[in-house]
């Protein structure tokens, strides 16, 4: 590793931030690799089993909090922010219509992993063109405490929902890291801005935020619809509503997201085939069409079976419809055991709704007239 005077390192750090922004990142910060204060929090989270079936979280243990164990020789981590909010988010419109499938807004466009990793590599290559260095880019691809690093790098602070928050950009952004063996000057953490607010904790449909800064992944709708490979526990199915891939509720309620920035990335804009679509239309896809439509999308990683599982639950939560019942019954004859279990649950929910709804034809004429006149029933 080349030894540079402190003044040259400061200039290089400034250049790195300029190069990063030129590559399309909205923010670039630099952190040291001492994450020791996060180790006990991480261990407690693992000990409580909050990682659920994500065995890879436990397999790597404390390596997540020790960047130089993951990449020997690492001295600094360059943290970057890339805004992803599509220009047509339509949060409320999509969530309130229970016949529509709601997809977390980070996933309605192109998968961000490859895009961000390529840009981080370009940033590393640019640094390496100036002097001999070793670097390695990461975007959700290794045991990295990305939010802890972003906090140290001044990108933002960790909110009570465990996501990174920024006063100028809210939380609708991706994070990426570039591990590097240069002793660059580091940035200072920003002031925490959550205060006494607990809106994210209160709004969570499944009460997955079990205490400030602690999320029980086993209860989180994002985990249940994406990471969970098996059956969705019955206690959470009705609470999922029409959320078929991920959940944005804790971000939507956050006051800081009034300042969320719309993404300038064409790749992050919503795909027509995935955005604001009826559940019945989505449920009607066969596997080949699913693979075609989700090519280059983060959604593809869950596979067709889990896609159908999630939509079956949403159809059970939708208002009663003979069309929904018919679609569920037809699908059950040619599906997997996992999906069939959720179809049975959905059919039962539809049956209950059908029995509790009172058709107008069953209301007596006098009652209808009373309602129309605003009179008591026995008038």
UniProtKB/TrEMBL annotation:
It is found in: Cytoplasm. Its EC number is 1.17.99.6. Binds 2 [4Fe-4S] clusters per monomer. [4Fe-4S] cluster 2 binds at residues 204, 220, 247, 250. Coiled coil: none annotated. One of its GO terms (biological process) is tRNA queuosine(34) biosynthetic process. TRNA binds at residue 229. The active site is at 140 (proton donor). [4Fe-4S] cluster 1 binds at residues 194, 197, 200, 254. Its cofactor is cob(II)alamin; [4Fe-4S] cluster. Keywords: 4Fe-4S, Cobalamin, Cobalt, Cytoplasm, Iron, Iron-sulfur, Metal-binding, Oxidoreductase, Queuosine biosynthesis, tRNA processing. Cob(II)alamin binds at residues 64, 140, 158, 175, 222, 247-248. One of its GO terms (molecular function) is cobalamin binding. Residues 182-214 form the 4Fe-4S ferredoxin-type domain. GO terms for cellular component: cytoplasm. Catalyzes the conversion of epoxyqueuosine (oQ) to queuosine (Q), which is a hypermodified base found in the wobble positions of tRNA(Asp), tRNA(Asn), tRNA(His) and tRNA(Tyr). Belongs to the QueG family. Monomer. This is Epoxyqueuosine reductase.
């Amino acid at each position: 590793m080349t030894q540079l005077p402190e003044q040259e390192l400061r200039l290089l750090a400034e250049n790195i931030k300029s190069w990063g922004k030129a590559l399309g990142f909205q923010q670039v910060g630099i952190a040291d690799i001492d994450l020791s204060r996060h180790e006990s929090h991480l261990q407690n989270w693992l000990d409580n089993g909050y990682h659920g079936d994500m065995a890879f979280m436990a397999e790597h243990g404390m390596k997540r909090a020790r960047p130089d164990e993951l990449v020997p020789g690492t001295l600094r981590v360059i943290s970057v922010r890339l805004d992803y909010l599509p220009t047509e988010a339509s949060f409320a419109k999509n969530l309130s219509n229970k016949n529509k499938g709601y997809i977390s807004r980070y996933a309605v466009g192109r998968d961000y992993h490859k895009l961000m990793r390529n840009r981080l590599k370009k940033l590393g290559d640019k640094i390496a063109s100036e002097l001999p260095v070793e670097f390695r880019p990461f975007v959700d691809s290794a045991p990295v405490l990305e939010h802890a690093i972003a906090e140290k790098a001044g990108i933002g602070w960790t909110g009570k929902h465990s996501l990174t928050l920024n006063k100028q950009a809210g939380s609708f952004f991706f994070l990426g890291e570039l591990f590097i063996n240069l002793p660059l000057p580091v940035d200072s953490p920003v002031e925490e801005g959550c205060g006494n607010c607990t809106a994210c904790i209160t709004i969570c449909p499944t009460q997955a935020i079990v205490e400030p800064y602690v999320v029980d992944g086993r209860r989180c709708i994002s985990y249940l619809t994406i990471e969970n490979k098996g059956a969705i526990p019955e206690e959470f199915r009705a609470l999922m509503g029409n959320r078929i891939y991920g959940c944005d509720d804790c971000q939507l309620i956050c006051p800081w997201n009034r300042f969320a920035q719309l993404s300038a990335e064409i790749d992050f804009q919503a795909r027509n085939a995935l955005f604001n679509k009826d559940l019945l239309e989505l449920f009607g896809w066969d596997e080949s069409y699913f693979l075609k439509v989700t090519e280059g999308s983060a959604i593809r990683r869950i596979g067709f079976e889990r896609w159908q599982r999630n939509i079956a639950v949403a159809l059970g939560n939708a208002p009663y419809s003979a069309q929904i019942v018919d679609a569920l019954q037809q699908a059950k004859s040619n599906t997997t055991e996992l999906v069939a279990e959720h179809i049975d649950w959905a059919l039962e929910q539809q049956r209950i709704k059908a029995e509790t709804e009172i058709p107008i034809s069953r209301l007596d004429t006098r009652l209808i007239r009373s309602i129309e006149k605003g009179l008591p029933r026995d008038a």
